[in-house]
Amino acid sequence: MxxxxxxxxxxxIAWSSGKDSAWALHEARRAGEFDVxxxxxxxxxxxxxxxxxGVREELLRAQLDAAGLPSLVVRIPYPCPNEVYEREMAAAMxxxxxxxxxxxxxxxLFLEDVRNYRETRMAGxxxxxxxxxxxxxxxxxxxxxxxxGVEATLAVVDLRKxxxxxxxxxFDAALLDALPAGIDPCGETGEFHSFVSAxxxxxxxxxxATGETVERDGFAFADLLPG
Length: 227
Hints:
By secondary structure, the chain is an alpha/beta fold. The chain is built from 6 helices and 10 strands; from the N terminus they run βαββαβαβαβαβαβββ. It has helices spanning about 20-30, 55-65, 80-100, 110-120, 140-150, 175-180, and strands at about 10-15, 35-45, 50, 70-75, 100-105, 130, 150-160, 190-200, 210-215, 220-225.
């Protein structure tokens, strides 16, 4: 940081390519408590796509360029045993600590078991997890995101909770109104995952096109393509 002003702790954003991690970045930047220096993303190497979200690495790179963040990719196989995932993440955290990172920012909303898992795995690493949008009411939060200019597309839906026709739909007010009863407006319990193509955390809009929808392992993946 230039000048003699205060310096801020260096943080990574845990980046899934979806709206919740993007909004967590937005809130962290607005609060100004951290210097967010990179985005940590898990990529399934077998497919060259963001894990769980199925987003192509090409779109991930375009997204992080628009966010002004260097990409730190943790590569995992498919399928990925939990011990392999934890080993690769531990190595990433050790490298981050060596690079002077003291915090990792997460976009979790209300799942206590997920938060507890993150806190347990990071205990003793010297890196502190941060949850800037924790326990925000998800209905109001979803509409706040949309009103702010966030544009997102549902990249994957859980077929146990939503029909495949929701994959590829835009995350907007019409989608929120169309969600069946019991579906979280932010998809926090895994109903859907998204890809953000515009919003206040990005310096420009990413043009995308929606390709075919593929069903695999109980999920429907919309193949998002560079526009």
